[in-house]
Amino acid sequence: MIENVTYADTEILVPGEKLTLQVSTANYGTSYVENMHITVKNAAQNVLFDDNVNVKLFPGNKKTVSIDVTLPKAASSDVYIVTNEYSTANVEIGLAELKMEQVKYSAAGKNFLAIKVTNEGFETASGKIQISDYDDGTKYFSKVFNGIKYMKSFQAVFEIKDSLFKNGEDKIQLNIDIVSDKKTRNNILPSDSVVLYKPKVAHTLQKIKADISGAKTLFYENEEFSSEGVMVWAEYSDGYSEDVTGYCSFAGYDRTVGEKNIIVKFVKDDIVLAETSYSVTVKSKVVPGDINDDGKVDIRDAIRLAKYLAKENVEINLSNANVNGDDKVDVRDLIRLKKYLAKMPVELI
Prior knowledge:
mainly beta, 3 helices, 48% strand
């Protein structure tokens, strides 16, 4: 039977030329198989290969064989269906189809250009983004991308510094070109140009502030962090402020007991524009009567508390040991715990 079919990920597909398929075969029968009849069709059911292939498979053995097919002369994606009388396997083929998107913006008095490259073809593609001067071709930036698979993307952000603006001009025009190791339809790769203006410094980001008046700042051990209720405001040089909570990330929390410094970062297009912080507290979760912190309340807790009160060298959870609510741990707590364990009508507080 046919188990799988692939082709070399590094192979460049050229319309009208040969493509070698790697067909994984297996013999799950009880007899030796010398030849296997294999047929290859495309999605339109055109036969690309139909012949016996020498596999020499003993029962229980597997083998990968190579089959050469000719790609269509018109570059397009396709599905190749490989069959024998017992099984079928498919492989998607096609050229790398790279698409480019650009976003220009200003932040903190700086110009940024974000370039996103998406592969809409079936071939994994590598290459680079090149940014150069529109007028004289001076190359300013080059960013390599590796192994973009089907419908996956790569994004790079470039800071367009004031030094690139020539002769005191307030604008610059740039060429954006994509170079790839894979052929594309009609051999055309994405190319574009963009005009950027010097950002006005009158409206620059000064800082961010976290308003935690409505936020949760007390957590218990092993409780998951939540930033719900936190409002983060960005303040600008011209007095303008805006809510940027949706652009913020929160880090620095762990579920252990103690004070935690939560780092708040204002991020756009993978660039940290500003950060601030605030504190939260993680307390031990109180389970009245669980003296030994094993998650249960039983006779072992009473024994541990008795040893502690006898000044033996044992550790206890003091918060859980105060079972009568008087904020002290003494013999009265031991008496109440023993009554509770004896199913007498008392509560652990």
